[in-house]
Amino acid sequence: MEQLVLDDVLAQIRTALEENDLATASSVIEALRPADQAEIFADLDDHQQTALLPQINPADAADIIEELYDEEAAELAVQLPLSTLVRIVDEMEPDEAADLLDDLKPEQAQEVLARLEAAHQVKHLIDYPDDTAGGLMTSAFLFLQRRWTAAQSIAAIRAWHPDEETIYYLFVTDRLQRLAGLVNLRQLIVADPKTTIAEIMEPDVIYVTPDTDQEHCAELMLRYDLLALPVVDAENKYLLGVITIDDLVDVLQNEASEDIQRLGGTLPLDRAYLDTGILAITGKRIGWLLILFFTATLTGGVMAMFQGTLEAVVALSIFIPLLIGTGGNAGSQTTTTIIRAMAIGDVEWADGWRVFWHELGVGFVLGLGMGIIAFILAMVWVGDLQLALAVGISILCIVTWATSAGSLLPLVVARIGIDPTVVSGPVMSTLVDATGLFIYFTVATTILRL
Amino acid sequence: MEQLVLDDVLAQIRTALEENDLATASSVIEALRPADQAEIFADLDDHQQTALLPQINPADAADIIEELYDEEAAELAVQLPLSTLVRIVDEMEPDEAADLLDDLKPEQAQEVLARLEAAHQVKHLIDYPDDTAGGLMTSAFLFLQRRWTAAQSIAAIRAWHPDEETIYYLFVTDRLQRLAGLVNLRQLIVADPKTTIAEIMEPDVIYVTPDTDQEHCAELMLRYDLLALPVVDAENKYLLGVITIDDLVDVLQNEASEDIQRLGGTLPLDRAYLDTGILAITGKRIGWLLILFFTATLTGGVMAMFQGTLEAVVALSIFIPLLIGTGGNAGSQTTTTIIRAMAIGDVEWADGWRVFWHELGVGFVLGLGMGIIAFILAMVWVGDLQLALAVGISILCIVTWATSAGSLLPLVVARIGIDPTVVSGPVMSTLVDATGLFIYFTVATTILRL
Fold first, then answer.
1. What does DSSP say about strands A179-184 and A228-232: parallel, antiparallel, or unpaired?
2. SS3 (DSSP) at A132
């Protein structure tokens, strides 16, 4: 829905709430689509949320809770009467319900769980970490038997009235409930009603185990264009649950947005930006800022080392920001390009040397171009041939070095098991600062014979 | 499939190709899943690709071409005999076929089009830009009529044997072929066979027009958890095509990876990294590097302005990298956080002032902490109280300034229509460099009474 319309709806609900007209407020919100309901709801004050939620029908309330940030949902849940909370949780997807209960106090979670209709579906999901296949999967799925016919299967689907997301791929199990194959709904409809599932199923199914990392699940679903991914017990291949495409899309969005935050040198936020307190945001940033600060003292150390040189030719200092800035930028360009190539599978560890030579070439060409421009600039600015030569040659060396080193950095850190987005950007600049200055002063002392 | 297995398969195919055994090579590749086929295929040399592709059955060849980068696919297509190319293009999804033909020379595209079986489905897609709804949509879809019964509709689906992606959402049209509603396959199966489509369809359908930007399409599908999005004629609401979830996932991945590259200050690559030449990569980077270089001369200008100060107290220069580095890092942290909050809809233009005050608070707390640490560091390092005070106060001011300015930058540039990822990272650092130095020298000359 368009933003302007949503703003109107929000104003309407706020007015109703101020007049204590909960019935109007809840009927207005119930008429919206889930994503719009959640957006409107998130914009209300905390006490308005707590007052309104019990009045909204449980299915819509469940949708709203599912769309909120985990922390916000848990804070809201704590405020609700137990009976209301139970009614809402019963309408949630089992995987989302498990995530929510996991964020509550253990006593409260137990109380809710004891009263849930679908307790058996939720209970065994609670223990899996949120960012694994076990945490993403739903246990509310229908499985077909190999010996059933297409007609029997369709009858089972009708009787089961499943959720939309879990129906397009139907997984087939053998008598011991082990994963045996996959049929998609289209095949089932197109098939002769008397055909057995065993005849039309695809036996070679891609699956994961509950401890598989969510990023790997997303990669598999993306790579093979899967609408659903089965999760099986590692030992016996029992079918435990199914990850659906809507969960994958959320994972992808979150990972992309977390990567962007990490590239900027900050830990990802856990909740909506404007609801995150100043101290919480500061906490997410100060760690990196301090690490980078102390790394930057290295650069200060290099400056101190060459203080004699600086005292002799103060004009040298004018070019410091230019040189280390350009080096840092060239390095960041390379690391982000390589991180992206690694993410889409274009580049891997085994390509290391090819990547290095490639970037060495790029760095040299870039460095030569930038060096010539810097030389001209220095001649115009300071008018000293030797100084201009020192600046130009330094840029050539720094850019070549930053580019080629920047190509290996993400590959090496990924190899030792660190997310390369974390060490890119700021770390790269800080490291290039110190080495770049060292190169500059060395070249300058040589050429200027200091 | 695991990487090691794929490497084995690649070696097997290479051996077969060296022995000119095209039959073995093609049967090995045909046994793989499409994504694996494409990965293996992309690793072969150009002449091997050209020799092998005509031997692979057209449906698999079409999958391979669809998975390649656009430029690579076009280069390969040019090498193929016309009859082979026509057979392959006929197996491609109409939207992918249109993209490929659009990348060929007009004469060649015309020749292929003239011989295609599905020419009518492809022809009208060619003119839409790749990054719009028109470029993403497929025209191979089935639409239902309102007066049909569920049983009739299922019979139509069986007769049509559609592709997997286009079947889960079925769009309903009225007699004039205008979009009238949506039925999903699950509703169709669960419904009484005699119910008419008009009774079960959802009449309020979210749709786009052909010129809608692909990012907006992705946002809508994500927000409302849609598996398919109909594209209609802006004037008459004629149903023109359907965008499916697999296309959306590709868009999301590309946008995320392009954002990451832009944050690093480089234009996104058009093809696989290792296949992109050194000069092409240089071309993607030199523009930004030059812009940032000339912006950095501003910083050099500030240094030149305060050369007298620097000559008087050379020790001041030791702290320059530390100060401007910390300012740049603090600014990047803020811009990336805000860019992410904007991307997921947490923050928009109207929140500008709230965001600014929020970040002013964060910046002050961060700056205070970093300032105290910097003061202690400077006391230990240089042992001059006034200098240490100048450094500490400068850090406080620079971090507060970089953080609060960094919060508005993405909002302002997005407002004037520029992608905020482009101006974040490097631009932020470069701007903070100059202003940070100015702050430092001003504070230092005041405290040290220079």
1. unpaired
2. strand
Q: CB within 8 A of B352, min separation 6: which ones? A: B408, B411
Residue B281 and residue A337: Cβ atoms within 8 Å? yes
**8 Å CB contact of A154 and B307:** no
Is B283 domain-assigned? Answer: yes
Predicted ipTM of the assembly: 0.73
Give the pLDDT of residue B390: 94
DSSP designation for B55: G
Q: Quick check: B274 and A354 CB within 8 A?
A: yes
Rounded CA gap, A165 and A311, in Å?
70
Asked if A425 and B264 come within 8 Å (Cβ–Cβ), the reply is: yes
Contact between A309 and A316 under an 8 Å Cβ cutoff? The reply is yes
**Interchain CB contacts (distance < 8 Å): A and B:** 344
Average pLDDT, chain B: 85
Please judge whether B297 and A322 are an interchain contact, meaning their C-beta atoms are less than 8 angstroms apart: yes
3-state secondary structure of B448: coil
Q: Are strands A169-173 and A143-145 parallel, antiparallel or unpaired?
A: parallel
For residues B409 and B435, membership in a common domain is answered with yes
Distance CA B433, CA B100 (A): 46
- Per CB-CB distance under 8 Å, the chain A contacts of B339 are 260
What's the pLDDT tens digit per position in A53-97?
A: 999 999 899 989 888 888 888 888 888 889 899 999 988 888 888
Q: Min CA distance, A429 vs chain B (Å)? A: 8
CATH number at residue A69: 1.25.60.10
Q: pTM of the entire structure? A: 0.74
**B56 domain residue, yes or no:** yes
B177: left (phi over 0), alpha (psi -120 to 50) or beta: left
| Cβ pair A225:B310 closer than 8 A | no
Contacts of B277 in chain A (CB under 8 A): none
Candidates B317, B329, B354; nearest CB to A317: B317
Give the up-direction half-sphere exposure of residue B157: CA atoms within 13 A in the CB hemisphere. 28
Spatial distance between the Cα atoms of A303 and A320, rounded to a whole number of angstroms: 10
The pLDDT, as a whole number, for residue A165 is 57
Residues B132 and B160: beta-carbon distance below 8 Å: no
Residue B330: which residues within 8 A CB-CB, separation 6 or more?
A285, A289, B363, B366, B367, B398, B399, B402, B403, B406, B432
Q: Assign B166 a pLDDT band (cuts: 50, 70, 90).
A: low
Averaged over successive runs of 10 residues, the pLDDT of chain A (450 residues) comes to: 74 90 90 86 87 90 86 87 90 87 88 86 82 86 86 84 69 90 86 88 91 87 85 89 82 73 73 78 81 80 84 83 86 85 81 90 92 92 91 95 91 84 70 89 89
Task: For residues B373 and B359, give the distance between their C-alpha atoms in angstroms, rounded to a whole number.
Answer: 21
- Relative to beta strand B143-145, strand B169-173 is parallel
Cβ pair A445, A306 in contact under 8 A = yes
Domain assignment of residue B265, yes or no? no
User: Which of B404, B264, B419, B390 is closest to B323 using CA atoms?
Assistant: B390
Residues B312 and B379 in one domain: yes
Question: What's the structural domain count of chain A?
Answer: 3
Do B189 and A189 contact (CB within 8 A), yes or no? Answer: yes
Q: Work out the widest C-alpha separation in chain B, in whole angstroms.
A: 94
List the strands of the sheet with B179-184, edge to edge.
B143-145, B169-173, B179-184
Of B33, B325, B425, the CB nearest to A296: B325
Full domain range(s) for residue A365: 273-447
Among A165, A225, A266, whose Cβ lies nearest the Cβ of B337?
A266
- DSSP-derived secondary structure for B67-117: HS-HHHHHHHHHHS-HHHHHHHHHHS-HHHHHHHHHHS-HHHHHHHHHH-T
Do A332 and B426 lie within an 8 Å CB cutoff?
A: yes
